[in-house]
Amino acid sequence: MKVRTEARRNVILEAAVALFKELGYERTSMNELAKRLGGSKATLYGYFASKEELFIAVVQAVATSHLAEAAAELQDENGTATLESRLTGFGERMLCVLTNDADAMAVYRMVIAEAGRSDVGRQFHESGPAELIRTLAKFMDSAMARGELRRADPHVTALQFTALITAETQLRLYQANPAPVSVEQIRALVQRAVEMFLAGAAPR
Fold first, then answer.
1. What confidence score (pLDDT) does residue 79 get?
2. Do residues 158 and 137 touch, judged by C-beta distance below 8 A?
3. Of 137, 138, 139, 129, whose CA–CA distance to 157 is shortest?
4. I want to staple 99 with a disulfide (CB 3.0 to 4.6 A). Which of 7, 11, 128, 181 is the partner?
C-alpha cells in the first residue's frame, strides 16, 4: 500500500496548476494529469477524489491561502497599530496576490468561466473568499465596538471595503497580458481605497 505524503501532494498540485492554466478547467482531466506525472489515476484519486476536489485544492494553494493569511493578520491585536495601518496592510497583501500572481489570476478566470456550468463557483467561494469576508467582518465589528467605525452591518461593510480595494484593478481579469503592478502603484491604489472607505465609514 502506497503511503500518501505531503511532498507528493504538492508535486501533484504543481502539475495540476500548470495543466489547468494550459488547458482550462473543462479540458483538464485526471487521466491527462496522470500521464504528465508518469503515474496512475489510482494514485491521483488517493489524494483527490475528483477533478472538482483537485481544482479546489489548487484554488486554495495558489489563491485563497494568501488571502486567508492576510485576513488572519487583522485578528492579531496590536495596540500600536492604527485602524488605517491595519486596513492598509491587509489591502496591500490582497492586491499583491490579485494583481501580480499569474497563477492566482488564471484560477480566478477559470472560476468565472466555469461558474455558470457547474458548482465550482460556489465551491471556490466557500473555499476562500467567504472565510475572508467573515474574518474581515469580525474585524469591522470590533472596530465599530471601539467607536472607530460607525455602526453598520459588519458583513456588508467588509464587502464594501474589499470592493474598494479591487475597484481599480478589476479590468485586469479581462486583459490577456496585463502589465505588472509595482509596489508603489499598489500602495497608491490601496491608499486611495482606504481613504475613501474611512471617509464613508467614519463615526458620525
1. 60
2. yes
3. 137
4. 181
pLDDT lower than 50: segments of the chain: 1
Backbone angles phi, psi at 171, to 5 degrees: -60, -25
Length of the chain in terms of residues written: 204
pLDDT of the residue at 167: 94
pLDDT of 188 reads 97
Name the amino acid, one letter, at 57. A
Q: How many Å apart are CA 70 and CA 68, to the nearest integer? A: 5
pLDDT attached to residue 98:
83
pTM for the model stands at: 0.81
The superfamily CATH assigns to domain 60-201 is Tetracycline Repressor, domain 2 (1.10.357.10)
Please state the φ and ψ torsions of residue 92, each to the nearest 5 degrees: -65, -40
d(CA 138, CA 125): 18
